[in-house]
Amino acid sequence: MIEAWNAADVRAAEAPLLEAGEPLMERASFALAMQVLADLRARRRHLRGARVVLLVGAGNNGGDALHAGGVLARRGLAVTAVLVSERAHTGGLAALRSAGGRVVELFADPARTAAVAADAASADVVLDGMVGIGARGALRGPAADLVTALTDARGGRRGSGARVVAVDLPSGIGADDGTVDGPVLPADRTVTFGAAKPGLLLPPAAHLVGELTVVDIGLSLEGAPALRRLEAVDVGRAWPVPGPTDQKYSRGVVGLVAGTSTYPGAAVLSASAAVRAGAGMVRYRGPGAVGHAVLAARPEVVAAPGRVQSWVVGPGVPPSDEDDGQHGRGGGGLAAARGDLGGMSQGATPAVVDAGGLSLLEPPCPPWFVLTPHAGELETLLRRHGEDVHRRDVEAAPLRWARRAHELTGATVLLKGGVTVVVGPSGAYAQADAPAWLSTAGAGDVLAGLLGAMLAARSAEVVERPGLAAEIAAAAALVHGRAAERANPGGPVAALDVADALPATVASLVAQA
Ligand SMILES: NC(=O)C1=CN([C@@H]2O[C@H](COP(=O)(O)OP(=O)(O)OC[C@H]3O[C@@H](n4cnc5c(N)ncnc54)[C@H](OP(=O)(O)O)[C@@H]3O)[C@@H](O)[C@H]2O)[C@H](O)CC1
Ligand SMILES: [K+]
């Protein structure tokens, strides 16, 4: 698991060590230099003569870059520091100069910005040390102009020309929330110190981070992290592997209310995913015609009422005001679920509430209800609660708005996207496991069925431990993303292929743990 800590927590953990004279900057900058060397060795035979350009701001982030530059210059690399502020870390500057590094005072001669950017773009490595956790707002002044010019010089493409290594974080991102309010240089790698910061894991900034390296500089961080990211081993270890005394009921029955004659496929996809993820049983509770399609695809499904350990409500169901009565006619499935949903607040059955199911909610909800909106659906949900918010606001600050939805409803919220953000009562998760190919019709229905199976398997525990639903939802996002990758590595993937890849994905996660 990757744990991310807010800037204030990192500073609080640094303070006593700095007071005690611990050489934190030396540790950080040395590790940074070693990472740069390792990356260079992977790309060229000889290090001598490799060109490194440091983009250096006024604070300690610039200090890290300058000290690392000093280490690299002593190894024979040609290092140039570009100062974007008239202030620069004194010790770092001295270290670089004494190691033979060159210094360009860009702040004093902004007309050179384009030429400096062109030079940096053709270097082997650019170290982005303009601001770190001390940034206030979007990059401004010479730093902003240089990033714009350098982005132009690289043709806007990561991976072309110089390899960009961000020092602690890509300069200008919101360290705590991942917001991007101005120009930011996309990094190929980010070397962060002490602990990951939430902004490195959260979109939109997460897309600018590249490979993430966390350097231990000896901080002891107390309390709970601001954000977590599960890794494969966490999910494999927690997977509900059946034992010899288990039977289908103890493994968990998923009740599925999904699909209409307009969207029967959603029910097929959710049911397939729940079955393929190892549900003990799937009960389909929806319109009869859709039930036939579900049974034709998955003969394991039972289309009869009975007890369930989790509900999946809403895939392929339009919002309640547009539901042309199909669910009322179709065995009363949705109406029953509506009653069950109400009852579940006391009766305690975990539920995945997706798509049209979201319009059925009557908060307050328990944390074992997991809402699975995408950004547009979250906008609708938040606006229903009086928030003046648009989809683009949700996309610009997903953690903030997922958290708001959790506060307003009480439910656990899984916000779907290229990075999936989950917020529950015990904290937040950001999962980046899915290939971009997974943004395809029906992928959300598969996630809902998969999550339903995972909640059913640990139903009682989910109700007892308020934070567990969020952890399981984050795990479902990981499995979903991995299954998409496994279904067709590096290429297009259809939703049903993802469901079909679940058994092998789960087996490999369990085997690796
Ligand atoms: N303390 C240590 O020994 C360690 C620190 N580490 C590194 O330090 C940074 C945090 O350093 P800090 O000096 O607190 O802040 P920054 O370097 O991030 O930036 C602050 C200066 O940047 C200028 N600034 C602020 N906002 C902007 C902006 N939007 N655009 C341009 N410039 C900005 C500001 O200067 P002014 O003159 O404008 O006021 C600040 O002075 C941390 O990220 C680590 O890299 C290491 O972890 C090791 C231990
Ligand atoms: K930086």
Walkthrough of the structure:
This protein has 513 residues and is α/β, with parallel strands linked by helices. It folds into two domains: 2-229, YjeF N-terminal domain (Rossmann fold), CATH 3.40.50; 232-237 and 248-512, UDP-N-acetylmuramoyl-L-alanine:D-glutamate ligase, CATH 3.40.1190.20. 43% of the residues lie in helices and 15% in strands. It contains 21 helices and 17 strands. The protein has helices spanning 7-19, 24-43, 60-74, 90-98, 113-121, 141-153, 198-201, 232-238, 248-251, 264-276, 288-297, 326-329, 333-347, 375-384, 391-396, 398-409, 443-457, 459-464, 468-487, 495-500, 502-512; strands at 2-4, 51-56, 78-83, 102-105, 125-129, 163-167, 189-193, 211-215, 227-229, 253-257, 281-284, 310-313, 351-353, 369-371, 412-415, 420-424, 427-431. An eight-stranded mixed β-sheet has the order 11-10-12-13-14-15-16-17, sandwiched between helices. A seven-stranded parallel β-sheet has the order 4-3-2-5-6-7-8, with helices on both faces. Strand 10 (253-257), helix 10 (264-276) and strand 11 (281-284) form a beta-alpha-beta unit. Helix 2 (24-43) crosses helix 3 (60-74) and helix 10 crosses helix 11 (288-297). It is elongated and about 80 Å long. The two termini are 13 Å apart. Potassium ion (K) is lined by residues 61, 128-132, 166-169, 171. This is Bifunctional NAD(P)H-hydrate repair enzyme. InterPro entries: Carbohydrate_kinase_pred_CS (IPR017953), CARKD (IPR000631), Nnr (IPR030677), Ribokinase-like (IPR029056), YjeF_N_dom (IPR004443), YjeF_N_dom_sf (IPR036652). In the C-terminal section; belongs to the NnrD/CARKD family. Homotetramer.
